[in-house]
């Protein structure tokens, strides 16, 4: 198994870190203590040695905090954990140039989506340069071409020695933001279907034939008729050369915009000199995207290339990737045929009766704000011992704009007509509230503007039906008799432009007019960041 380099990057922090503000830097010692505790916990509970840690994903950095974090790491014996800064643009390099203490605290300069280029201020620091988040592109063959191009050209153009893909596996509902923006796809846990996409094999062209600790040679560059090549060595005599000839339109990434360039078929000659002059044979692996005939192949082992006098010539077509290497252990892995793809079940139930599943989410639910976990309710007389509980009680310090309400979505985004039901239990007297919902149309960073049909009940004895998560567009409201610390069964039916709700088996409201959205997920959630429990969730879609 190839060695891994575990790294951590906070995207959000618990609310107590910010002391009520959406800002983690006012109390740098508290924030640093939290991050260091996470690193120590990764080792204690998961036997993970974290090698690097970042500051705050794509947000402003704070020089004082970075220095406090460095000191805190050192104080607890984590001097070997390097700090990556600042996981946005290259601006931190300007501050490092005038602050020697800050410069000493940072081990790696990491930028996101750098477009394969760096800046002079970053180069002047003489630190390791990483593209610490990149790719994030739909994983069809153009996405594979994007990945092939930037894996090489991040070093050729920008001297970045690491490129981190966001994300690794697209294992979330495809209609959430950035659907299928992973190196492979596994987004149907209900069927077990998965797809090994082209970016997986493009990754192998580099990662099977080099390891952390190898170095790029200075003799890298662009080919005369487009494309690029890099060379890496372990300083022990091994050599790996990776070549890509991706054309512009077949290698566009999600960001930044890609300026025009041309690539044409060409013959290229390489001359091995110095310690590599004695190499007589290189293993050859090839991928060809073949956008014309739609008959691509990926990571194919060819016959070894015999070398005389240290020289060899290759005939390169467009949209190809080659690896030439002294490493002989390359292997194209195999995997069983995945189960067939299929839609989310139209009839679905979960009673959450899972013992010994502490701090675990329930299958198929996708928390968009808040955290919904299995819970063992030891005070219940019997029917609701095992439940799902929303456990975050304070708005976190967030990266994106989380909702003020908690929400977890589930199901098929194409669902239009359906019935959602769930037993609910509020744990906040007077001000508590929970909902079930249908046709929820947004998640991720857009969740605050989610629309749908939301059926709320509150601990003050009222109910409300709204057309949006924030609760501004009211379709119906009235008295429900609901209270905290008692179980209630909610049922919501949406069909066409009409919605009807039931409470504890009896009609509570009916014929609310729903003009939109026409489709979306089912969902559960709470009125605020509060404790609440859910049980016996069920959906029946038509």
Main attributes of the structure:
542 residues; alpha+beta; Jelly Rolls; 8-stranded antiparallel β-sheet; 7-stranded antiparallel β-sheet; 8 helices; 33 strands
Provide a brief overview of the structure.
This protein has 542 residues and is α+β, with helices and mostly antiparallel strands. Helix 2 (28-46) crosses helix 3 and helix 7 runs parallel beside helix 8.
Could you describe the 3D structure shown?
Residues 367-541 form the Glycosyl hydrolase family 59 C-terminal lectin domain. This is Galactocerebrosidase. GO terms for molecular function: galactosylceramidase activity. Residues 216-331 form the Glycosyl hydrolase family 59 central domain. Belongs to the glycosyl hydrolase 59 family. With 542 residues, the protein is α+β, with helices and mostly antiparallel strands. It has a domain at 347-541: Jelly Rolls. Helix content is 15%, strand content 35%. Helix 2 packs across helix 3 (63-75) and helix 7 runs parallel beside helix 8.
Determine and state the CATH class of the domain at 347-541: Mainly Beta
CATH hierarchy: architecture of the domain at 347-541 = Sandwich
Which parts are unreliable, with pLDDT below 50 for 5 consecutive residues or more? none
Tally of strands? 33
Q: Considering the protein shown, what is the CATH homologous superfamily of the domain at 347-541?
A: Exo-inulinase, domain 1
Briefly note the CATH topology name of the domain at 347-541.
Answer: Jelly Rolls
